[in-house]
Amino acid sequence: MSSDVAISVRDLSKCYRIRHNVNAPTTAAEAIVRKIRHPLQRVERETFWALRDLTLDVKPGEVLGVIGRNGAGKSTLLKALCRVISISGGRIDLYGRVGSLLEVGTGFHPELTGRENIFLNGSILGMRRREIDKQFDAIVDFSGVEQFLDTPVKRFSSGMHVRLAFAVAAHLRSEILLVDEVLAVGDREFQDRCLGKLSAVSSDGRTVLFVSHQIESVAQLCSHALLLEHGKMTAHGEVDDVVAKYVSKQHEETDLRHGIDRRFGTGELRFVEAATHGDMYASDDEKIIDFVIERQRPYQGRAYVSCAIFDQRESVVIQCDSRLVHYELDPD
Q1: Disulfide-capable partner of 321 in 115, 145, 181, 306 (CB 3.0 to 4.6 Å)?
Q2: Residue-range domains of the chain with CATH
């Protein structure tokens, strides 16, 4: 591995041609028959750039979070790095063996058992049998599927799939580890274990690219982050700075889309003011928030107040509800 860079990407682009014809042929035979019957029919295609002129260097041992909205090009980037898809332009240089976890069951043969798939996955990653044997017990222990190890993986649940797949990818010695948004399949306890394992992997000098919509996980695990929008890199740097830009961008788009005066609900009661008392940032102090609520038109029935406080990464810090203390408002 190069001492200066683990992943080098230069002017990376990926273009897809999208057909818009109704009832497009699905086999070569259908295409030939259609061409004979309709020789002058034109195929309508749209050019879609999933990635456009992306240039990036990732250092050895760096944990890089890749964030962005759905369709921004995050998964396409990882698939290009894994050579799963061909690229339309640019160059990719990887300095070391690559382990990947792109989706549930990637690289698993459904008819083979969990035990057999561990060796199959290791072989795909370029590992020798003695290397796999050395890590076999640790893989099984981490995955928690020992009871079903000799069962074909086609009978595994999605959670069992991702447990075993992550255990294989994380324990076998690849210098570069690519992880897509698959940890969301597992339960909370397993997600925490995965994040801890990824942190340990980076401490060993291995490079990690982590794609996730869970901003808190990205901020916790990664030292740097990359923000993609419509296939282009719009921010790259310290994780806190990139996350702040991403969250700010989301807020701006929400305001533009919905309008700042838009309110949800039926409109009988409306919040008109919220005021805090004292320092809200001192963790040991009592927090007091005064709400002013106006009645817009006659209302009958019960009314409750619920509020939540979020941090800058949109994670809920605390949530309060008057129903929990058996308190209700008098609309009169």
Answers
A1: 306
A2: 7-96+175-253 (3.40.50.300), 269-325 (no CATH)
